[in-house]
Amino acid sequence: MPELICPRCRHQGQQHRWWAHRHDGVICPRCHLTERITEVLDDGTGRVSPALLPLHEAIRTQPRPDAGLVWLVGNRHVSPLLADLATGRLPLSHESLNDHPSPQSAAHLRDLLVQHKILEQRDRYLVQFEAWLSRTLASVEPAEDRELISRFATGHSLRLRERATQEPLTPGLVDRPQHEINSAKAFLAWLRDHDVTPAACAQAQIDTWIATGSTSRQGTRAFITWGAGDGAFPRGLSVPYNVQVARRRKPARGTFDHDQRLRLLRDILDPTTDYILRDRAAFIILILFARPLAHITALGIDDLALNNHEVRISIDRPQEPVLVPDPFAPVLRDHALSRGPRNIEANRSSPWLFPGNRPGQHIHAKHLKNHLSRYGIEVTRTHLAVLRTLAQEMPPAATALSLANDAV
User: Fold this and answer.
1) Which of 172, 170, 185 is nearest to 219 (CA)?
2) Which of 14-18, 196-200, 266-270 has the lowest mean pLDDT?
3) What are the structural domains, with CATH classification, of the chain?
4) I need a surface site. Which of 7, 56, 131, 258 has the fewest CB within 10 A?
């Protein structure tokens, strides 16, 4: 196939879907992207919105213009949302993005706006919680229930905001209030279905609610306790612990002994196995140093020190970095030098050892857990506790020596 020459920038390349026909010829993907993003970010005066100039420049100059076009053109929510922000139809604020009907598109754009200092930096999980809460409250009917859950949720929001001023939030800190708010929503709907108002709720209704559902209904305890103090529920109500439901919980998974540990590490080091490089690196830190996934995903690229002769990893700051023994060091080195994805709308200059798909964010622990589970490894809390114990019994250097001896 003959190569085309872009009439605007003189770029030369083979035509594919993102070359575009214009009056002056067939323009290349980069000129196509520049044209589209300039149109989308027009503030109504024929120029790019001044507030969004940093975003315009970043998207226009990203390393992979085809990826930018996929995001800008392929996602039906992105261009209208950008246009609304550029023209002022939507205020350029976190709150505007919280209420957007496409949460994933809004969250991705929020990360870009924060990354390029157009929006102020806010705690990642606090922002996600507030956006989730806005959508959740909008779905509650009738209005009396919505107002009651809103008052209950206010306490959670204030506590999370206060906590976020002291240290970064974690998924676990947000999961609990989300569960309790969802439980409150479900309980109020159940009461309505049984023609009972919160003020008329009796202990018998709570006992039936708990006895006829799963363990997730235990999350109602915080709401009912709060409601009794708020005056929404009668005083003296309590949530019983459902022993019958508790017996249905799955038992802990099996053990992970030393031989299994060595066998998995051998597979990880074997270049003929199916593990991708990122997963090899994550497994090494998980099994060799027995770190939980939430800790692994939050490691920064600066937590891995590389030089010509060795690799050291900062597992527990402020303690000294730990030497990564051979043959594991080359895997971590290779991963650090080839992290991905790093295009503009993802992580072109990510500070994380394990970048995610969203700008400026590391991969989520749940996403990594699901991905690692595809290899047949159960990454559960019980499993991690066993791994941690094994790691204490056998240091990384001793494990490396065992693998070397086994290969002889």
Assistant:
1) 185
2) 14-18
3) 3-115 (no CATH), 124-246 (no CATH), 258-407 (1.10.443)
4) 258
